[in-house]
Amino acid sequence: MDLHIHTTASDGSATPTEVVETAAKLGLSTISITDHESIEGCLEASLVGRRRGVQVIPGVELLTTHRGREVHLLGYFVDMNSSLLEGRLKKLREQRNTVAQETVERLKRYGINVKWDQVQNVVPENGVIGKNHILHAIREAGYIQTRIQAVEILRRYLSQDGLAYVEFSQHSFTDAVELIRKARGVPVVAHPALIRDDNLLQELLGLGDIGLEVYYYYLGDQREEWVRRYECMAIDNGLLATGGTDFHGSYAPVRLGQMNVPEKVVHDLIKFYENISKKYFSQEGNFDAITNKI
User: Fold this and answer.
1) Cβ neighbours of residue 88 under 8 Å, at least 6 residues apart?
2) 185 FRET partner, CA 20 to 30 A, in 15, 62, 72, 269?
């Protein structure tokens, strides 16, 4: 199974249909489409999944900030028909695209001359421009020949501490949790090691009823160490643990389903979803209580 997948609805290179078809061929029983600020790929994937015998959990990944740090938040089982969610996601995509344009301008200061229209050309209509779109444009401009070079440019220029990084401060973590709650979804902190601050992570998890992405395909030789660390954190704190590859397509260094996610993860996620649905939606407005703890 793989619960962290991107498609052409955001910054992946495979369509939702192609992702599901590949998952079926690989024998993956359950996947989740978690595009950046978009749920447009979920409906297509769900329809194909029913035909191919693959369970598709609708999801989304949101870029947020908390105390000046970038935090990614996954939302599982979000309501694909929520007009509130879609309206907010559309606004977030517009805001993120402005930040991406500023990033491209900063890259020029360091000799990476990529034109904005080159980046726009690789983005679907109404899509959000992410780091992988910028990397693709950099590759097309001839600055990247190998995956190692791609990872180096990502770390040196586009990571949170990178030279061309532009902070996206339009969406706080607590607002993102509230949005997922309103869309009747399960919030899960994505790839916690990339936050690089376990104290801040514990603070975020202190909101309550938030899961932790434990089984994640981190790049580099610390993957096993980080997976063990956050697995222990989840067990010690009684947290929901999820996992996935963060698959982005053919040009990514990880293949679909390559992360060994335990079978019990989906069972636990479904049970968790059922429990918080009763807790937060048995009475209208109950979800508000969770956003007042930080």
Assistant:
1) 179
2) 15
